[in-house]
Amino acid sequence: MDNMDNIDIYNNSAKIFERKTPKSVISWITILIILFVLFIIISFIPFNIYKNYIGKIIDNKIPSNIQINVNKSDFPIKKDRILYIEDIKYNYKIKHIYSDKVIIELKIDDSINIKDNLLQLNILYNKTTLGRIIINKIKKGFGL
Q1: Is the CA virtual torsion 65, 66, 72, 73 positive or negative?
Q2: How far apart are CA 135 and CA 116, in angstroms?
Q3: What is the CATH number of the domain that holds 126?
Q4: How many domains does the chain fold into?
Q5: Which long-range contacts (CB under 8 A, 24 or more apart) does 11-14 make?
Q6: Which of helix, strand or coil describes residue 90?
Q7: N or C, which terminus of the chain has less Cβ within 10 Å?
């Protein structure tokens, strides 16, 4: 009967329940779970990506024509054609696309509508989330 008692020591559920987990381990696991949940929530918040260009006003009629020297494959051609000049939102229309430049047409304020004036254009490129960016980087890393 002595041998049976020794074996039961290892299978005794009361001994398992009496064990104490250090509080530092529990607190670190809790912190990691909270950070992981916050990362998941943040990764699904949508935001806009803009491309920055330098444009030159080639005539100062209304609407103005602005020339952007860029490769046509680098210029975003989207349905919602929105750009920002000095944090003011404008809708533009693509007038001509050449191999090395794009000419857009838009109505801008008279204060900046000066011939040969250079403008910083922020054009809406894409709407995305942090999660999509991470997934695309992982796919690109695996060559998919």
Answers
A1: negative
A2: 42
A3: 2.40.10
A4: 2
A5: none
A6: strand
A7: N
> Are 79 and 103 contained in the same domain?
yes
Instruction: Write the Ramachandran bin of 75: left for phi over 0, alpha for psi from -120 to 50, otherwise beta.
Output: beta
Token pair for 81? 């054609």
The residue assigned the tokens 């607190």 is 27
Domain extent for 68:
48-142
Helices and strands (H and E) in the chain: how many: 4, 7
Tens digit of each residue's pLDDT (9 = 90 or more) over 107-141: 887 777 777 778 888 888 888 898 888 888 898 88
Q: Which residues contact 11 (CB under 8 A, 6 or more apart)?
A: none
63, two tokens: 């609407």
Nearest Cα neighbor of 62 from 2, 113, 123, 132 is 113
Task: Locate 73 and state its tokens.
Answer: 């494959």
Q: Are residues 66 and 21 part of one domain?
A: no
pTM of the model: 0.58
Distance CA 138, CA 144 (A): 9
33 and 80 part of one domain = no
